[in-house]
Amino acid sequence: MIELLSHRGIRDERVLRAMSVVDRHLFVQEPFINRAYEDSALPIGHSQTISQPYTVAYMTECLEMKEGDKVLEVGTGSGYQAVILAEMGARLFTIERHMGLLTQARKIFDKLGYQIVSKCGDGTIGWKEFAPFDRILVTAGAPEIPQPLLDQLNSGGILVIPIGDLDVQNLHVIKRVNDHFEKRETFGFKFVPLIGRKGWR
Ligand code: SAH
Fold first, then answer.
1. Would you list the domain boundaries of the chain?
2. Atom of ligand 1 nearest to the CA of 75
3. Per residue in 59-107, pLDDT tens?
4. Domain 2-189's class?
5. E strand map for the chain
6. From the CA of 5, how far away is ligand 1's center (Å)?
7. Cα dihedral sign for 177, 180, 186, 191?
């Protein structure tokens, strides 16, 4: 899997290292364990998926995270992305709207010994009590950028979020520089929908 990721253009050694030490098969359902190291998204229940390894690696690279950064993830899902970020030294906060998925992810966080703060709720409104964040990563596709996430970004902070329609999204990488935002976009991703007050209804 790691060879494939570097072949596809992932250069950040810290990302490749984290993805080589975290066992992805722990985050997929029993029938898919033998496919855990393929570069594909896999079902995790509740009509949701664990993101494709390339997508995880690419988003993580875009985040340009530093050790000790306070990071908010929206869309815990299986917990895989959260553990990759924690392994890279993030102080991680993660929100999931399906309690069933969150319960499962929390079991893995505990089992592997990662200190990750999590809650069940609507991540489109961020997590005010712990804001501001140095980095925010949204792992589900949104129709537009939720304003609360921009408001909860530190100066110098980076928000990575897929924006588009329900079929295809572009990854937006938004950097806050004091009170203005610098944006770049990359094309052609497919995420499950971000559902919530500032997402899809
Ligand atoms: N990061 C996850 C990817 C899971 S798919 C992983 O590594 O496995 C995206 C997840 O976002 C789904 O579990 C979905 O239930 C969740 N989600 C969608 N809308 C959300 C919202 N408004 N708040 C929190 N989670 C949401």
1. 2-189
2. 11
3. 999 999 999 999 999 999 999 999 999 999 999 999 999 999 999 999 9
4. alpha beta
5. 42-45, 48-50, 70-74, 91-96, 117-120, 133-138, 153-164, 169-177, 180-189
6. 23
7. positive
